[in-house]
Model the fold of this input.
Amino acid sequence: MTTTPSDPTLAVAKHPVPSYLDPKNLGPWEIYLEQVDRVTPYLGKLSYWAETLKRPKRILIVDVPIHLDDGSVAHFEGYRVQHNTSRGPAKGGVRFHQDVTLSEVMALSAWMTVKNAAVNLPFGGGKGGIRVDPRTLSLPELERLTRRYTTEIGLIIGPEKDIPAPDVNTNPQTMAWMMDTYSMNVGRTATGVVTGKPVSLGGSLGRADATGRGVFVTAAAAMTKLGMPLEGARIAVQGFGNVGNAAARIFHDHGAKIVAVQDVSGTIYSGAGLDPYALAVHLESTGSVLDFPGSEPVQTHEFWGLSCEVLIPAALEHQITASNAGQIQARLIVEGANGPTTPAADDILRERGVTLIPDVLANAGGVSVSYFEWVQDFSSFFWTEAEINARLERIMNEAFSSLWAVSEQHGVTLRTAAYIVACTRVLEARALRGLYP
Ligand code: GLU
Done:
């Protein structure tokens, strides 16, 4: 029997549309689906399983009620999405942000699947989030929010099932509360349930700077390929949180010049270069990058057109779009954030000869050291920071070289190369495991 869908948008939809998303506005999930479509022609027989990538394995939506300090009760919406577990437990961060949506968390969880496979970590992909502006909560309120959320998603997380970590607006303290809450609920101290913990609680040395360090390592490898000197290279950074700040410091330490920084408070520029160490102190004390001594303010929209060699988007998704990709002066873009560039912008940059190191490679240093942390927690044997940084550099350099080779072999962007390698790994595991029952 044939049936006619009552909603015509379902009949013409380019992609399978989950009924829980608005079919006319799939948000970041739509971008991810387009990225997967671009890689399907390269998957050969494995494309038989490609549909797997277009559906998250498991989605949990939770209500997170807490007592506010004034005695009232507030409810927040929380998510944990396990996109894929073919190659191992789900792995990925938790973000607290007022704009978090299911579509966003789905896309972020899928990007974790691709990232973990692209750098060959034995993990699937997951992500979580709470739709909350954490700046509106006191520290005790944030603790109650984190603990209640952890209890709610406790149904599906665990050291061998799904391992959260920090992401936007979450940090080692958040992870300490999550570890403690999960541990109290299961009746034993389970350090391996989250990564990115404080070092005194089973965290790993080197984790705090790992994402920024990986951004630097992949950028330096690309600059060598492109014949771009690191010494004196002008770097523009969007976002001065964990990733942007660490990347800026490490570039600065290697002789590059941080000429521009943009964050939620504004945009600053200095042709002579900004000292990221002093900028971090200024941001901490004033709450803004603006008025940093020696810098001049720049209009927000002018950031993309600033003259520089390397551009590092290290804030949120959907920043480099068809409307600003044409203005970008940099020769190299290194995605510290997840999902900052739309597929249309990818095409424009490619045509303009701009090299882009995609998020799933560029920012994989964080989850790589999360993997080391998880391994160290299981063995209760901890490595030195030098060992961790050396292993991180090895993973990043090996992944960069193999993806660069695949991109040359097929004449595709580094993003498509990363998806070819990652999706092949995930779908090979899928095919070998087979369908149960
Ligand atoms: N949130 C980070 C990311 O997007 C780290 C995830 C992790 O360490 O599990 O890659």
Summary: The pocket of glutamic acid is lined by residues 91-93, 165, 167, 195-196, 338, 363, 366-367, 370 (CB under 6 Å). Residues 210-362 form a domain with the Rossmann fold fold (CATH 3.40.50.720). Residues 1-13 have pLDDT under 50 and may be disordered. The longest helix spans residues 385-410.
